């Protein structure tokens, strides 16, 4: 059986290697490893806002972490701490995500990816989390990960992977404020949304932490397994969560 082909949303940045110091399409190797080591065939997708036709050739979509989403997408002015907007990435990933949801492709969103899921489902973001929770524990400083416990909703996809709770890493100064039509299935003790999903879809899950850094192979394995299943696998009236516990 061939491996499921999974698109990983990449971005443009300055990069140096060998003789080169140039504009490049980049994505952390840890995302590629998470897909490949758990049975998937990763394909890197550069920013492209012309169309999302490539998704007809893919079995799933992974949205990676990175720069803040332009708050114009959810009707707000930028906070002083917000990143400079990356319109090519925002428009390209929003197009990919909306199309993937229309096609019912499995989607895994990491950090920024969770936030994109919330926006597409009609939600909004907290632009600077310390203003809301009163501490910097979710991002102690640039380049340093925090750690905290997350509690998961029983019978959710997140709980099927992690159990009722898990200690996760943390490096974000923004978070979901209103999840829109997403179902929140994980929170930290200070109430921050750490996991959310769309139970009406085959597999749509966003997490606020960085499983590619901590090597959460159980999560990548569950995602790849969902990508390997045909869209019509769930019988009418069946519980789409019943099989998730066997994954990973």
UniProtKB/TrEMBL annotation:
Residues 69-90 are annotated as: Disordered. One of its GO terms (cellular component) is cytosol. InterPro entries: Class_I_gatase-like (IPR029062), Peptidase_C26 (IPR011697), PuuD-like (IPR044668). It comes from the Bacteria. It comes from Streptomyces dangxiongensis. GO terms for biological process: polyamine catabolic process. This is Gamma-glutamyl-gamma-aminobutyrate hydrolase family protein. Keywords: Hydrolase.
């Amino acid at each position: 059986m061939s491996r499921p082909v999974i698109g990983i949303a990449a971005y443009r940045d300055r990069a140096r290697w060998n003789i080169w110091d140039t504009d490049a399409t980049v994505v952390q190797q840890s995302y590629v490893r998470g897909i490949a080591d758990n049975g998937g065939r990763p394909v890197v997708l550069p920013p492209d806002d012309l169309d999302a036709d490539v998704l007809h050739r893919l079995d799933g979509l992974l949205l990676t972490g990175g720069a803040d989403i332009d708050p114009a997408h959810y009707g707000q002015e930028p906070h002083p701490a917000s990143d400079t907007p990356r319109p090519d990435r925002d428009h390209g990933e929003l197009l990919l995500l909306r199309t993937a949801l229309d096609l019912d492709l499995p989607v895994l969103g990491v950090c920024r990816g969770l936030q994109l899921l919330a926006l597409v489902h009609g939600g909004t973001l907290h632009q600077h989390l310390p203003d809301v929770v009163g501490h910097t524990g979710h991002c102690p400083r640039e380049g340093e990960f925090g750690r905290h416990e997350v509690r998961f909703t029983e019978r959710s996809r997140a709980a099927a992977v992690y159990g009722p709770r898990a200690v996760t890493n943390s490096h974000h100064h923004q978070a979901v404020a209103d999840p829109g039509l997403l179902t929140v299935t994980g929170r930290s003790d200070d109430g921050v949304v750490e996991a959310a999903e769309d139970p009406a879809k085959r597999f749509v899950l966003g997490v606020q932490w960085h499983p590619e850094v901590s090597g959460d192979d159980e999560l990548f394995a569950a995602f790849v397994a969902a990508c390997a299943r045909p869209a019509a696998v769930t019988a009418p009236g069946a519980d789409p969560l019943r099989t998730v516990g066997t994954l990973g």
